[in-house]
Amino acid sequence: MQANVSRAYHKKWTFTRSSISACFLDSMASLGLAAYGYGIRYEFGIFNQKISNGWQVEEADDWLRYGNPWEKARPEYMLPVHFYGRVEQTADGVKWVDTQVVLAMPYDTPVPGFKNNTVNTMRLWSAKAPIDFNLQECTSPCPFLA
């Protein structure tokens, strides 16, 4: 028994931080503890694997192709996230100017507890282009990809 426990303890687990966080959120809901979880709403999964002509080929896993029935978009909480720019001295202090903006759009997913009335929320954030996004500014090299 001791050898098995030691082997399990020293095994390198391949959980990602996201999956561990989701497990914590689920466990807290099942214990009746109120909690929120925050993260990034990835549009694609790691990848799909297939064999083509005897070689492993990896393709994007478009897991949101048909949407997610459990999540609720929350556009009323969308926030601007500023990148680049510079700081200018003003009469009132300092001001951050000439920034490029990406909008952060939250999506909420309920995480219910087991046999109780606790439902926690996992909020994942997705990046969106602002309405006034100028594609002409993205000439080679594109500042968003630099």
Automatic annotation (TrEMBL):
<comment type="similarity">
    <text>Belongs to the glycogen phosphorylase family.</text>
</comment>
<protein>
    <recommendedName>
        <fullName>Alpha-1,4 glucan phosphorylase</fullName>
        <ecNumber>2.4.1.1</ecNumber>
    </recommendedName>
</protein>
<dbReference type="GO" id="GO:0005737">
    <property type="term" value="C:cytoplasm"/>
</dbReference>
<dbReference type="GO" id="GO:0005980">
    <property type="term" value="P:glycogen catabolic process"/>
</dbReference>
<dbReference type="Pfam" id="PF00343">
    <property type="entry name" value="Phosphorylase"/>
</dbReference>
<keyword id="KW-0808">Transferase</keyword>
<keyword id="KW-0663">Pyridoxal phosphate</keyword>
<dbReference type="GO" id="GO:0030170">
    <property type="term" value="F:pyridoxal phosphate binding"/>
</dbReference>
<keyword id="KW-0328">Glycosyltransferase</keyword>
<dbReference type="InterPro" id="IPR000811">
    <property type="entry name" value="Glyco_trans_35"/>
</dbReference>
<comment type="function">
    <text>Allosteric enzyme that catalyzes the rate-limiting step in glycogen catabolism, the phosphorolytic cleavage of glycogen to produce glucose-1-phosphate, and plays a central role in maintaining cellular and organismal glucose homeostasis.</text>
</comment>
<keyword id="KW-0119">Carbohydrate metabolism</keyword>
<dbReference type="GO" id="GO:0008184">
    <property type="term" value="F:glycogen phosphorylase activity"/>
</dbReference>
